[in-house]
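Encode chain A's predicted structure.
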Amino acid sequence: MRIHIKLLTPVLLFVLMVMNSCNKDDFRFGDIITPSKPILNIEITGKDATHPNGGGAGTIVVNVAADNTINYKVDFGDGKPAKTSTSSVFQYQYDHTGIKTLTVSVTVYGKAGNFSTNAQEITVFRAFEPDPAFVAMLTNNGTKKWRVDKDNPGHLGVSDAAVFTPAWWAAGPDEKAGLGIYDDVYTFTANGNAFTHETNNDIFGSKEYLKDFDPSLSGEGDFTLTGPKAAGYTETFGYDGSATAEYITFSSKGHLGMYKGVHKYQVLERTATQMTLRCLQSPGAWYVKIIAIQ
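Encoded structure for chain A:
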């Protein structure tokens, strides 16, 4: 019995040494090399001598070249989450309207999380073609006038931005009478996308934003601006959106309902004679219902 134990002991020691050697090899990473600084080649779809910012699709293709790279991350500069991939080629479509300058930032990752970065500024043009039915509804394919639907409950309101109804406050019928909002007329003209706001020399909104009309104002809160600085004006309007959302945009001071310093309104509901819209401004989302009058 003692003889057997003496014979087995060297064998067991040899097996343990082999296993220990294998375990060490399994955890070897090899040389850890930081990826080289990425080289960016950004192509804007439709870009040529006539269209230096692209043909209007708003689409770009980003090709990244970097040595010793395992993963790629691209931030397209529009405030949306970055895209990650093991591929070095990214295609992306922006959803802004018009011409916008953005910074595309790229991070490349190697072994053990080592990384390198680079960035490039681009200017991209994106055109938006609205639904013809939306244009016809808003402008009558000519000229159409609208006003705040003051007799409709909830024609003005506010809520958290995540909620699409005026949950915090909804105006009752004619609740804001005499404040300079119900006599406003909004005229949309298809030719040239002209917007005329007949104010009757009074504009209702928040004082801190009405400084856009009268820079001498100070303070905050609900306020009716009156006089020449609240005179009617004409500017251009535009359309924006996606497959699931429609927006009306204004070029300067244009707005609908209470003035909150915002010039982009999402259309939540629309018929030939009525629209429910909202805009985003602290502390949340502001609502207005308008009705066609001509």
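Residues 196 and 234 are 4 Å apart (CA to CA).
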